[in-house]
Automatic annotation (TrEMBL):
This is 60S acidic ribosomal protein P1. Keywords: Ribonucleoprotein, Ribosomal protein. GO terms for biological process: cytoplasmic translation; translational elongation. One of its GO terms (molecular function) is protein kinase activator activity. It comes from Maudiozyma humilis (Sour dough yeast). Gene3D superfamilies: 1.10.10.1410. Belongs to the eukaryotic ribosomal protein P1/P2 family. Residues 85-101 have a biased composition (Acidic residues). It comes from the Eukaryota. The keyword Ribonucleoprotein applies. Residues 81-107 are annotated as: Disordered. Pfam families: Ribosomal_60s (PF00428).
Length: 107
């Protein structure tokens, strides 16, 4: 993330915390007050992207808004983790069986 994007994100958070409507003019004002040069187009893009959204709700309830997409990903990740754990258990069992055969490291 560039310094401009970071500055705009923080400016948007400041405006949301102050319960002030997020507009490109206000974003530019805050970013310029921080002595960060920025092109107005980026403030326009940020303000349009955040238009009608409550940033506080997005931060607090981010999992609820992405639940349908995340549910599928979480299910796939859970299955992959389960398979990885099963493979690891098999490897450990194989290593233990080598020790039982008298091929230990310090024998």
């Amino acid at each position: 993330m560039s310094a401009n994007e970071t500055a705009l994100a923080y400016a948007a958070l400041i405006l949301a915390d102050a319960e002030v409507e997020i507009s490109s003019e206000k974003l530019v004002t805050l970013v310029e007050a921080a002595n960060i040069p920025i092109e107005g187009i980026w403030a326009d893009i940020f303000s349009k992207a955040l238009e009608g959204k409550n940033i506080k709700d997005l931060l607090v309830n981010f999992s609820a808004s992405a639940a349908p997409a995340a549910a599928g990903a979480a299910g796939a990740a859970g299955a992959a983790a389960g398979e990885a754990a099963a493979e690891e258990a098999e490897e450990e069992a194989k290593e233990e069986s080598d020790d039982d055969m008298g091929f230990g490291l310090f024998d």
